[in-house]
Every structure is written in structure tokens, then in C-alpha cells.
Amino acid sequence: MKAYLKNSWYMAAWSSELDGGALVSRRLLDIPTVIFRGADGQATALRDRCPHRFAPLSRGKLDNGVIECGYHGLRFDETGQCVGGFFPGTGSSSIRAQSFPTVEQDSIIWYWPGEPEKAEIALIPRFEYLSDPAYKTIDGVSLVSAYYELITDNLMDLSHIEFLHPAFCGVLQAAKHSAVRDGDTINSNWWAPNVPPTGAIQLWWPDNNGRIDHWLDMRWDAPASMLLHVGATHPGAAREDGMFQPSVHILTPETEDSTHYFWNAGMPRDNRLDMQEIGRLFALSFDEEDAPMLEAVHQAMGDADLFDLDPLLLRIDSGAVLARRRLRALIEDEARDSAVYKAPHRTAEESHS
Ligand code: FES
Ligand SMILES: [Fe+2]
């Protein structure tokens, strides 16, 4: 069985998914979770299980920020506290649904499945373009039948574009790749100077004059939050003089065999392209090109860990390998800490035996 990093921020939903008083029910790290806005509008994540007869709370209804269980009517606020019910004896303050620390930032609902006292907001990676009025954006979420680290591999090693999405690239064979760790962040970057425009750049920036300096910079933070900056300039020009296209790629395991892939594509607001069309291309290339390959790889690997299968590692794998190693180290640290925390204290007598 694979271990998840528990003391970490995971994406639970896009802010927009909670519009209109929605109850979003999603299995996250194997735990059914319900995400909604409380009476004050603050986003919250509760275990999607009523403490009475374990009915999914998401089968109830949201009334002014309070969930009423659809089975016998217990009512829970955004903290998980029971605030009453239809029948007598349901007003006790000891009745609670499990709640998770939840934060809304950059149009993303983050939740913390681990020890609540360790949930520091400063640990959440930033995706600032999502709230920058200079950009227009479109987002989505796909459910993929593959373990989430396989999708991290796919994103941290964009060499696959040449084979899975050949219409969009064609220059990476001649590009320089670097993978660098900076604290808990890994950067996996491609730099292709003075190359013909790729299919994607031709679409996004038709005024490219036929030659470009081109880059694809991917930033990873544990457990699986990635920010991609794709850009192009006229050869030799400063990056800020060219075009720039940011995108978000965040993975939250649903189970060991499936992953929620949250994506967002941004474009400078003055770009003429229609975001619905960009979103359609984004979803199509992932759902029809990446996902089938990732699901086939997942099937081929069974439940084995990549490193346990002694894979052939190429230079193009360096970003993905750094991310996997960092995540594995964090999970091992967490297991060690919790073993220390849980170890029963030895008695004085045992200590001297
Ligand atoms: S199961 Fe929720 S009130 Fe009974
Ligand atoms: Fe891809």
C-alpha cells in the first residue's frame, strides 16, 4: 500500500465549483469529503459522513451555510459542529462531523488532511496570475485512472510533448533541460534558443516572425502542485518583450488508482484567443493524449513503486526524479515523526533493564 503525505496542503476544489451554494462531494486521499461555503461565505471541507448513521452529508441539503443530513436531519455548520436537528436530543455540543483546516487562496480551495495544528497558511504555494486582472483564465478538473505521481512524472518531464502532443512542439530535442531543487521546490526547465515557432506558439503568438527563443519552466511543490510558464520572444529579446502563457496543474489523489487533475490555463487579457477554445484544447490534449498513456502505464506497473521496479532513467527524467525523491523524503520524515510521537513512554524500570 502506498503512503500519502498527510501534513500538507492539497487542492480540494476550484473556488468557482462552490458557486450557487453547491455541495461538492469528492473522495480525497481515499476519504469521502464534502466541500461547501459556510454562512459567512468561508469555504470548508468536512468528512462526508454523518456521525449518526454515516450517511454522506453531501446527500443532504445546504441551507444558509448549514448542511442538513438527508437521513434524519442533523444540522452541521462549516466547522463540523452539530447545531441542532429535527428530533429531541440532537442539540449536544459534543456532536461533530470531522472537519479539515481549509483555506481559499488564488481561486483554489486548499485543505489539510493531517494534524490540524501543523497547518500553516504560509506553506501553500502561490499561483498569483489566477487573481491578476492582466490575465484571463479558464479551469477544469479531470479524473484520471492512474496514481498521481505518474501524472507528476508526466508534467515534470515535458519531453513527452514531442510524442504525445506532436502538433504542439517539435523543438525539445535541441533544447537545454535543467532540473534544480530550491528548498522544497523543484524547477524543471526547458530552454530552446532561436528555433522555429512550435504549433502552440504559432497559435498563441502569430506575430513571431518565424524564429523564437522559447522556454517551458515548470515549478513543483509537494505533494503535487505545479505551475508552468511557457513563453517565447524574438531571438535575443528580453523575456518580458515576448509572449507568456501560465498554467496550473495540481494533483490530488482520489485513491491509489485514481487522481483529480485540476488545471487552469491563463492568457494575457489582450490576447485575441477565446478562452473557451483554449480550455477545449487543454482538456482535449490531456484527456485524449496524456490520460490514456498514463492509465496504460498505471496498469503496466500494478501497485509497485517506480523505483522498486528499477526503471531505466534518462536525463529527461531528472525533474521528475527530484520531485519523487523529495516527496519520498517528506513521507519518510512524517512516518518517523509520527512513530516517535506515538511511541509509548518507557517506564523508569524498563529504561534501566
Ligand atoms: S445519518 Fe445523519 S442524521 Fe442520521
Ligand atoms: Fe501532456
Show unreliable segments: 343-353
Reading off the top of the CATH hierarchy, the class of the largest domain is best stated as Alpha Beta
**Proportion of strand residues:** 25-35%
Number of domains: 2
Strand pairing plus helix content: what structural class? alpha+beta
What is the ordering of alpha helices and beta strands?
EEEEEEEEEEEHHEEHEEEEHHH
Helix content: 10-25%
Strand adjacency order, main sheet:
11-17-16-15-14-13-12
Q: Give the cofactors and ligands.
A: FE2/S2 (inorganic) cluster, fe (ii) ion
CATH H-level homologous superfamily name of the largest domain:
Naphthalene 1,2-dioxygenase Alpha Subunit, Chain A, domain 1
Return the average pLDDT rounded to an integer.
92
Rg to the nearest angstrom? 23 Å
Individual helix count: 6
Give me the CATH architecture of the largest domain, please.
Alpha-Beta Complex
How many angstroms does the end-to-end distance come to? 36 Å
Name the shape in a single word. Answer: globular
Written overview of the protein:
Strand 9 and strand 10 form a beta hairpin. The chain has two domains: 114 residues, Rieske Iron-sulfur Protein; 207 residues, Naphthalene 1,2-dioxygenase Alpha Subunit, Chain A, domain 1, CATH 3.90.380. The strands form four sheets. A seven-stranded antiparallel beta sheet has the order 11-17-16-15-14-13-12, covered by helices on one side. By secondary structure, it is an alpha+beta fold. The C terminus is likely disordered. Helices cover 21% and strands 31% of the residues. Helix 1 runs antiparallel to helix 5. The two termini are 36 Å apart. Bound molecules: FE2/S2 (inorganic) cluster and fe (ii) ion.
